[in-house]
Specification:
Number of helices: 4
Shape: elongated
Radius of gyration: 70 Å
Structural class: mainly beta
Length: about 550
């Protein structure tokens, strides 16, 4: 009677007749009363035990059959069409045979697990290659400072932990490498890497676009031109700084507003748009002076405390009020140390003269003019003043009286001129009164009426000196062996410079003496010795004449010789 062999699901695998060994499947099916059944039976047990271990797949597999692929050292299961690997296949390169969806591959080169999706292997984890170091989010256990441990979520990149995420604050037993503190605050903490300013989140975050529920456009940025429709306030005394090099500051000092120009020797300018042109209206100069480029109107009192004030305007208008009647008595009030020392300079409302409550004084070498003509200075009454009602004058040191002046009446007084008293004595013949028409002090005697000229002692002296000065000195001098310097010394003794005026000329007749000697021999005789007779004669020779001039009280060589 035949055996009917069924699968687990009830389907028939084979019908095995009596005495027959059936090889429909990978194992031999033994029919009833099959001779020598022991061998195939035991081989079937071995096959089942080793999962048909071989480099080639079983020839007649059934669905669900296991096969150990000895070439790949991989257990595989038959899906009805192909043998698929069971578990994880480990190799340095991705497998290419015996693959089905869901197959796992352990990449032994990079220590990563992959799953086959039917066409290619997808990475399951870890997300980093072992050679690159840890990368991605990983759970780390950290020791706590108070004992025990706690988990934190760490973000790694190429082996470096760059961030730690924790829901609560963690006080760790040691400072994590690259972090600034052992205390990890709740939230996300970035590593510092020696400089906490180098590691940042980049890109757009919602709360960067909206801070406090307000859009980014509602905030001012520090690297762009910005405007605000709201009130801008700096609620501290330090204020704010402007300029690429912190050129200026605006601050508060003792409740005072302070504007500071920080650049040395630079000004502060206040500008306005005048008729569509930006114009400087006020300048605080680099010398701490204030310059106003337009008109200056002071509605209150103007007080200056400097030593002087300078006005370069053509016209200084005082009390320019309307109506004009209100300008009466306009002027300057110069305050002294006391009210009694005040000086007021004002203009009469009727167009009268300028009046001063105290005198007027002008500087040295200055005077008073009328219509551009000087009328008075410290020493001189102007030549345009030709009429006076003087009744008394002081001592007159100079001046002249024009012809036609009239008689000068001195009454019974005496007219004195130096030590000369002029009288009305008659001439020797008593015919006429003596008339003195000239009085000279220069001694030139050039008057048209020399007989009626009286000379002073000074005039006479000057006349004699000039007469002498006009005559050259003439000397005859033996200049043999003398230098010009020697001659100057001789002149200083013979004609002292104090006795002559500068420019005096001395003419030297230069003579030289030449001595000539001659000798004669008188022969001797017996009893008489020979003798020599010598005679000498001097020859006077006139050489070039010399001229010396008295200059600055000293005789000096001029020419000749």
């Amino acid at each position: 009677m035949a055996y009917t062999i069924n699968k687990t699901d009830g389907t028939i695998v084979a019908t095995v007749e009596d005495g027959v060994l059936d090889t429909t499947t990978s194992v031999s099916l033994i029919g009833r009363n099959y001779q020598s059944y022991g061998e195939p039976f035991n081989e079937n047990l071995v096959k089942l035990l080793e999962n048909s271990a071989s480099s080639t797949a079983p020839s007649s597999p059934i669905k669900g059959e296991l096969w150990f692929d000895s070439s790949a050292s991989q257990l595989k299961v038959y899906d009805g069409s192909n043998f698929n690997a069971v578990g994880v296949r480990s190799s340095g390169t991705a497998p290419s045979t015996g693959l089905s969806a869901g197959a796992l591959w352990n990449d032994t080169t990079n220590d990563q697990l992959f799953m086959y999706d039917g066409s290619e292997f997808d990475l399951i984890g870890p997300i980093y290659k072992i050679g690159d170091g840890k990368s991605g989010w990983l759970v780390d256990s950290e020791s706590l400072s108070g004992g025990g441990s706690a988990n934190v979520v760490s973000l790694y990149q190429d082996g470096t932990r760059v961030a730690i995420l924790t829901a609560t604050q963690r006080a760790l037993s040691t400072v994590p490498s690259g972090f600034g503190s052992a205390t990890i605050n709740a939230g996300l903490t970035f590593y510092e890497a020696g400089d906490s300013t180098t590691f940042r989140l980049h890109g757009t975050a919602q709360n960067a676009l909206e801070l406090g529920g307000r859009p980014q456009s509602a905030y001012l940025v520090n690297d762009q031109n910005q405007t605000t429709s709201g009130t801008f306030g700096v609620l501290n005394d330090t204020g704010f700084t402007i300029g690429e090099d912190s050129d200026a500051t605006m601050s508060i000092s003792s409740n005072n507003l302070v504007i500071t120009q920080n650049n040395a020797d630079e000004a502060i300018l206040f500008r306005i748009n005048k008729a569509s042109t930006v114009t400087t209206a006020l300048e605080v100069t680099d010398l701490a002076n204030v310059r106003v480029y337009g008109d200056l109107q002071v509605d209150g009192s103007l007080t200056t405390t400097g030593s002087s004030s300078t006005f370069e305007d053509n016209t200084l208008v005082l009390n320019n009020d309307t109506p004009a009647d209100s300008n009466d008595q306009a002027g300057l009030d110069i305050r002294g140390s006391t009210s009694g020392n005040n000086v007021t300079l004002f203009i009469q409302g009727d167009g009268g003269p300028i009046r001063s409550s105290s005198g007027l004084s002008v500087a040295t070498s200055k005077g008073y003019d009328i219509a551009g003509t000087s009328v008075l200075n410290a020493t001189t009454l102007g030549s345009s003043v030709v009429t006076s009602s003087l009744t008394t004058v002081g001592v007159l040191n100079s001046g002249s009286i024009n012809s036609g002046f009239g008689n000068i009446h001195i009454g019974s007084s005496t007219l004195t001129c130096g030590s000369i008293v002029m009288s009305s004595d008659a001439n020797d013949d008593s015919s006429t009164v003596a008339t003195i028409s000239n009085f000279s002090n220069d001694g030139r005697l050039e008057s048209s009426s020399p007989d009626a000229t009286i000379l002073s002692e000074t005039a006479i002296k000057n006349h004699v000196s000039q007469s002498i000065a006009g005559t050259d000195l003439v000397f005859e001098l033996d200049t043999t062996g003398l230098s010009n310097s020697d001659i100057t010394t001789i002149l200083g003794t013979a004609a002292p410079s104090s006795s002559f005026p500068n420019g005096k000329v001395a003419r030297i007749i230069s003579l030289t003496l030449t001595a000539t000697s001659s000798s004669s021999l008188v022969s001797g005789s017996i009893g008489h010795a020979s003798s020599v007779s010598t005679s000498t004669s001097l020859t006077r020779t006139r050489s070039n004449d010399l001229i010396f001039t008295l200059t600055n009280g000293t005789w000096s060589y001029t020419s000749g010789g």
